[in-house]
Automatic annotation (TrEMBL):
Membrane topology label: Peripheral membrane protein
Stretches assigned to the ABC transporter domain: 9-249
Keywords on record: ATP-binding, Nucleotide-binding, Transport
NCBIfam families, A to Z: oligo_HPY
Keyword Nucleotide-binding: yes
Gene Ontology biological process terms, A to Z: peptide transport; transmembrane transport
Family the entry assigns: Belongs to the ABC transporter superfamily.
Name recorded for this polypeptide: Oligopeptide/dipeptide ABC transporter, ATP-binding protein, C-terminal domain protein
GO molecular function: ATP binding; ATP hydrolysis activity
Subcellular location: Cell inner membrane
């Protein structure tokens, strides 16, 4: 379904995953059905790795991915594994690399339906037409090839393909960051509408706080593979508690406008393979004390459980 057998996509995945084999550690969050949980962090924080492990594209070196309490990578029965995969789909960052350039759009969108054997072959085209309509494309667009579409339209095609297997959960990995600002909000609005209509649950991965503020119900701030703050949207934006969350926000001056990139933060993200001791943020933190260099801060709850923060100094 994710075309992992296709060389161009394999290259893309290999490129991204190489560095982060040991990068994600103790990441724990719940997403209520029908809601959006956003993961934010700089590139190199491990966001995409988490997304790919959830959809089964990348196996954790240790630990498990539990879906309804069941360890996905331990399932031996291929039929059951396929049934599990059907429920969880992914929309990738690049609408250019994630669609097979040699397939007509109706073939691309129909592939999951065939792969999961969801309906008789004769009914697939009708379903594809429905999906095209659902994402705002015309039935005749199914006859075209990906290169005939703009970036925004391609991402609509990717969304239709993700919806084709009737998933419950979609991992959206920077779905609009490759798009023009004017197109971003249209795609985000489409995703919101689809979520409402179909009761979808999203894990939304982005480095862009303005996009996250628009999309998320709850937010996890990821730093070097660990969640340093998890809070509901209002709590996080009104009162960012972790020094790293504050640093990200200071770097995004216009958090209400679309299309901001929040990459201008002070200092460099350390090598995820060689994490600093204690609090891994200490080399960049302005509040660092001795114990920050020695002790890894525990996760503590604030605001009646609405925020969880891993920082020695956080008090309220
Ligand atoms: Fe900064 Fe210390 Fe808090 Fe880490 S634990 S974020 S170094 S104050
Ligand atoms: Mg990424």
């Amino acid at each position: 379904v994710f075309d992992v057998s296709k060389p161009w996509l394999n290259r893309m995945l290999a490129m991204e995953s190489k560095r982060f084999l040991t990068a994600v550690d103790t990441v724990d969050f719940d997403i209520p059905k029908g809601k959006t949980f956003a993961l934010v962090g700089e590139s190199g924080s491990g966001k995409s790795t988490i997304g790919r492990m959830i959809v089964g594209l990348q196996k954790p070196t240790s630990g498990q991915v539990l879906i309804d309490g069941e360890d996905f990578f331990a399932i031996k029965d291929q039929k059951r594994k396929l049934a599990m995969r059907r429920r969880i789909q992914m929309i990738f960052q690049s609408p250019y690399a994630s669609l097979n350039p040699r397939w007509r759009v109706r073939h691309i969108i129909g592939e999951p339906i065939r792969a999961f054997e969801l309906m008789p072959a004769g009914e697939v085209d009708k379903r594809v037409a429905e999906l095209l309509d659902q994402v705002g494309l015309a039935k005749s667009d199914g006859e075209k090839f990906p290169h005939e579409f703009s970036g925004g339209q391609r991402q609509r095609i990717a969304i239709a393909r993700a919806l084709a297997s009737n998933p419950e959960f979609i991992v959206c990995d920077e779905p609009t960051s490759a798009l023009d600002v004017s197109v971003q909000s249209q795609v985000l609005n489409l995703m919101k509408t689809l979520q409402r209509e179909l009761g979808l649950t999203y894990l939304f991965i982005s480095h862009d706080l303005s996009v996250i503020r628009y999309m998320a119900d709850e937010i996890g701030v990821l730093y070097l593979g660990r969640l340093v703050e998890v809070a509901d949207r209002d709590s996080l934006f009104e009162n960012p508690r972790h020094p790293y969350t504050r640093m990200l926000m200071d770097a995004a001056p216009h958090i209400d406008a679309f299309g901001r990139t929040a990459e201008i933060v002070s200092g460099e993200i350390p090598d995820p393979i060689d994490k600093p001791k204690g609090c891994s943020f200490h080399p960049r933190c302005t509040l660092t004390e001795d114990r920050c260099r020695q002790e890894r801060p525990a996760v503590r709850e604030f605001d009646g459980g609405k925020a969880k923060v891993a920082c020695h100094l956080c008090t309220a």
